[in-house]
Amino acid sequence: MTSIHHLSSVVFMSELTLMFHSARNAGEVTVTLKRYDGRTKPYPKPRKVNKGKKVIVPEPLPEPEEYMCLIRAKHKNKKIATVVKQAEAVKFQMQFMQFLRSSTDALKKERKPRKKAKKATQ
């Protein structure tokens, strides 16, 4: 597996274009978005000291100044990711929406099965 590097939004979009192009005939591209606060450490859990008699509650981590959006994409073994700040979110969202509209034109139309009309019994 390859490691994930946080790319700039411009490089991320160009890499995502290449992923969609290579997945056009076969395969899939998975894109995930989540709120990201910039933390790299897990939330601290309460610990027990001296065989469970005393519980130490750790100090909670401080709240971030601003939340960001972490966007990941995966195609086969290739993974890419970017972090978009709040100030750039609207611009990136418009660019991403335009990209999705242009790249999802080769989707197959799903055919719905026809329901047979019931014969009227008299």
UniProtKB/TrEMBL annotation:
Which GO terms fall under molecular function for this chain's record?
Answer: 7S RNA binding; endoplasmic reticulum signal peptide binding
Keyword annotations for this protein? Cytoplasm, Ribonucleoprotein, RNA-binding, Signal recognition particle
Span list, region Disordered? 103-122
Q: Which top-level group of life is the source organism from?
A: Eukaryota
Entry's Gene Ontology BP terms? SRP-dependent cotranslational protein targeting to membrane
Name of a matching Pfam family = SRP14
Q: Entry's InterPro entries?
A: Signal_recog_particle_SRP14, Signal_recog_particle_SRP9/14
* Keyword RNA-binding assigned: yes
Q: Where is the composition biased (Basic residues)?
A: 109-122
Any one of the GO CC terms: signal recognition particle, endoplasmic reticulum targeting
- Location within or outside the cell: Cytoplasm
Indicate the family of this protein.
Belongs to the SRP14 family.
Provide the function of this protein.
Component of the signal recognition particle (SRP) complex, a ribonucleoprotein complex that mediates the cotranslational targeting of secretory and membrane proteins to the endoplasmic reticulum (ER). SRP9 together with SRP14 and the Alu portion of the SRP RNA, constitutes the elongation arrest domain of SRP. The complex of SRP9 and SRP14 is required for SRP RNA binding.
How is the subunit organization of this protein annotated in UniProt? Heterodimer with SRP9; binds RNA as heterodimer. Component of a signal recognition particle (SRP) complex that consists of a 7SL RNA molecule of 300 nucleotides and six protein subunits: SRP72, SRP68, SRP54, SRP19, SRP14 and SRP9.
Protein name as annotated:
Signal recognition particle 14 kDa protein
